[in-house]
Amino acid sequence: IKGKKILITGGSKGIGKDIAIAFAKLGANIVISGRNAKDLVDTTDELRKLNPNCFYEVADMQKVDDIYRMVDNTVTTLGGIDVLINNAGVNIPKPALEVTEEDWDRVLDTNLKGAFFCSQRAGKYMLEQGYGKIINIASQMAFVGYIDRSAYCSSKGGMMFNNKEFYEDVLKRIPLGKLSQPSDVTGAVVFLASDLSNYITGETIKVDGGWTAI
Questions:
Q1: 167 catalytically annotated
Q2: Gene3D superfamilies this protein is in (predicted)?
């Protein structure tokens, strides 16, 4: 992780902030993004106590121009982008019969459209450099649904299927192209045995280089 160039959307609070702190402790170079400049400044100040190479970008994930600027500035600031973490998200809890068009658009534009165009922009840089990882923070509600969460569930379910489409679209250009080695499995096993995985249970983790994603 040390020296990795990482962009975390929605990184000023909640899950995104916790992820940023964890990476800063490990020596990653980080850009966090969000809409609230004060929150970003406060969090970046915290991160810089762990690693001085931490920065922020003010960006609205509903606006594609903001997204492109954010990713481009990240590449300029960090000298590239190794990891994109699509974490930014919004939820407007309402019964399905009361959801307005404005509610729907805000949730879907932030959670789904925003993540897609972040991945698109960062993916172009990753293809050029021949390396990169995109991590999307979805939700259990993408699998099971939940009361008063129609727009949110739709956005997170869409994010999951965007994962598959995006993978299929770029696979032929950046295939793993190799058989697995014992060390490939070891990383997953060590993670699952560590305290980092304490909230994971009852899951089947595939370590297959994307073979079953085809």
A1: no
A2: NAD(P)-binding Rossmann-like Domain
Pairwise CA distance, residues 137 & 51, whole Å: 24
Partnered with residue 29 across adjacent β-strands are 5
d(CA 24, CA 54): 8
Instruction: From the candidates 146, 152, 167, 199, give the one annotated as an active-site residue.
Output: 152
Asked if 138 and 160 touch (Cβ cutoff 8 Å), the reply is: yes
Q: Please, which residues have CB within 8 angstroms of residue 108's CB and are 6 or more apart in sequence?
A: 151, 154, 155, 158
Domain chopping of the chain, boundaries: 5-175, 177-214
Specify the CATH number for 5-175; select among 3.40.50.720, 3.40.30.10, 3.40.50.10740, 3.30.110.40: 3.40.50.720
Note the pTM of the prediction, 2 decimals. Answer: 0.87
How confident is the model over 124-177, as pLDDT tens digits?
Answer: 999 899 888 898 888 887 788 788 989 989 998 888 887 777 766 665 555 566
Residue 8: which H helix or E strand, with range? strand 5-9
